[in-house]
Amino acid sequence: YLLAVIDLSHRERVKAVRRDFVANVSHELRSPLTAIRGYVEALAERQSEIPQGERIVGGLLRQTRRMNLMVDDLLQLTKIETAKPFVPEEQTPLALKAFCQELVAQIDDQQRQERDFAVKVPGKILLLIGRKKLFSLVNNLVENAIRHTAPDGRIDIRWRKLPQGGELQVRDNGEGIPAAHLPRVTERFYRVDSGRSRDAGGTGLGLAIVKHQMLRIGGDLRIASRPGIGTTVTLHFPPRVVKLAALSVDDDTDDVTLHPELQERGVQFDAKELP
C-alpha cells in the first residue's frame, strides 16, 4: 500500500486571495461606474449640441453598460463560490414551464419577433432551486442563443425526463461553435471570437456562471455544437431538485388531472372542487 499526503492549504489560500481580490475590485468599480454612467446619460439628453454627439455618447453608453454588466457578473460569481451549501428543501417549488414562458415573454420585442421561440416543457415539472438561480441559468443560455442566432432563426427550450432527475435544453440553429473551442467556453472571459462577442454585448462570464451554479446544486452543464448547424446547451438537474406537480393541466383541453403516482397510491381528486 502507498499512502500519499498532499498539502493543499497553499492552493486554497491562493484561491481565497483571488476570490477576495475579485470581489473587492468589483465593489470598488461599481460606485465610480455608476457615477460615470449617470454623467453619460445626462450628456445623452444633449447629444445634439455636441459635434458627432450621437456616435460619441452612444459609444460611451454602450461601454459603461457593458462594464456594469461585467462587474455584476463578477460579483455574482464570487457569491456563488462563497455561498453556503445548497439545500433544495429550503426552496419554493417553481413551475418550470410557466417560468420559461414568462422569461421568453420578457425578451426584447424585436429579438422575439425576429426569431422563432418554442417552450416544450411539461406543465407538471417543478424545480427546487430558487427563482434567482433559475433565472440566472436559463436567461444566460437564452441570451447566448439570441446573440449567436441570426434573425429568422429558431430557439427551443425543452425538458427531457431521465431516470435520475431531468435535463433542460436550450437549442438553437445559429452559427455553432468549432469543436476545438468547446472544452474552454465555460472559462471566465474565454471567447471563440473576441471581437464579435464584444460587439454583441457579452461579458464572457455567462457560461462560467451557469457552470458554477449547476455544480452548486449537484448538477452539470454540457454543450454540443456544430458550426453552421447550431448549439445545444444541456443543464442536468439531479433528482433532489426535480419534483412533479400533484396536478397538471392539458394545454389543449384545459383538463386537470392527478399525477399517476398519486393515483396509484389511492389519492382521489375531483376537478369540480377547484376554485
The CATH superfamily of the largest domain is known as: Histidine kinase-like ATPase, C-terminal domain
Per CATH, the architecture of the largest domain is 2-Layer Sandwich
- The termini sit apart by 68 Å
Number of helices: 8
Order of helices and strands: HHEHHEEHEEHHEEEEEH
Helix and strand content put the structural class at: alpha+beta
**Mean pLDDT across every amino acid position:** 79
Under CATH, the topology of the largest domain can be stated as: Heat Shock Protein 90
- Principal-axis shape: globular
What low-confidence regions span 5 or more consecutive residues with pLDDT below 50?
265-275
Helix content: 40-55%
Question: What assembly state would you assign to the polypeptide chains in this entry?
Answer: single chain
Q: Going across the major beta sheet, what is the strand order? A: 2-4-5-7-6
Sheet with most strands: 5 strands, mixed
Instruction: From the alpha carbons, calculate the radius of gyration and give it in angstroms.
Output: 22 Å
Tally of distinct domains: 2
CATH class of the largest domain: Alpha Beta
Task: Kindly state the number of beta strands.
Answer: 10
Taken as a percent bin, the fraction of beta residues is: 15-25%
